[in-house]
Fold this protein.
Amino acid sequence: MNLYPAIDMLGGKAVRLVKGDFDAKKVYDEDPLSAASKWVREGAKRLHVVDLDGAKAGNPANLEHVGRIVGELGVPVQFGGGLRSLGAIEDVFAIGVERAILGTAAFTDEGLLEEALGEWPGKVLVSVDVRGGRVATAGWTETIDGGAQEIIAGLAKHGAQELVYTNVDRDGMLEGRRLRRP
């Protein structure tokens, strides 16, 4: 398992949502590059960047900020949020993103999923965001039928090898467990 510090962007700012609620957000930094820079100064070797506007709208909305993060920080970035076409995926790779994350499209367009996985092996991941035991899509505003385990098994049959998992019910709650050293 790899842990990535996350920068969630909404309205061009670095934010944290509480349980995926767009109305319950806290702005952490007016500039996502500044937020990402703080993580890198603290020792982050890679970053996870999410375009919440893009996830909700269906196409990336904050690529300018993502490009600045990739171009100025020199650490690998994985990016998701609104990637629902091959063109959108190509656009994020063109600005230097290392790995693209498909969310909604992985569940609504099997052809796109299979084509993206084949076109960019090892560079396309699937985001499985679970709320109340069901997979959430469309910027966490909708859920799809089927249990999470069943859906993950189906993704593997389509060739998905790596997943990004979020428990939406705990996201933004700051209830993580501290790891204790022996």
